[in-house]
């Protein structure tokens, strides 16, 4: 399985599934400091299956523009490596890597019982929802120097 730091729909459709990297150790350590019962495998690849494209495209109209959607889609692996916020579903079945741009963009990764990871979806998260997650203790700000991703200024 090929691994990519930037994505295109065409390459995913051609290959059926691709790796979008793994969860970096420093992020895994951070998650485990917030959710000690959750074990994060930093060597397991996050798989993006071609059938997830249609689900992701269902959220396209929720983005400020088509251009922003396309740029965010391309940058999905970067959002996982360099999130501004991280949220874990209460049942520990998924992790959301949230990037703050002109909209908060959530990239959701499913955690299987076998400790493997698969990309689920990407969508803009309402600020009120992120605030609720932060207040509920299911999301945390992730501070790391240099975790800003450059998105074309027209997209922000």
Write the layout of secondary structure elements.
Layout: H1 9-15, E1 17-19, H2 25-34, E2 46-49, H3 52-57, H4 66-74, H5 76-81, E3 85-88, E4 94-100, E5 104-111, E6 117-125, H6 127-136, E7 139-141
Parallel strand pairs: 2-6
Antiparallel strand pairs: 1-2, 3-4, 3-7, 4-5, 5-6
Task: Give a short summary of the structure.
With 156 residues, the chain is an alpha+beta fold. Mean pLDDT is 90; it is low at 146-156.
The total of helices stands at 6
Q: Would you tell me the overall average pLDDT?
A: 90
SS-based structural class?
A: alpha+beta
Query: What order do the strands of the largest sheet run in, or round the barrel if closed?
Result: 1-2-6-5-4-3-7
The biggest sheet amounts to: 7 strands, mixed
Q: Could you characterize what this model shows?
A:
With 156 residues, the protein is of the alpha+beta class. The protein has one domain. The protein is 31% helix and 24% strand. The longest helix has 10 residues.
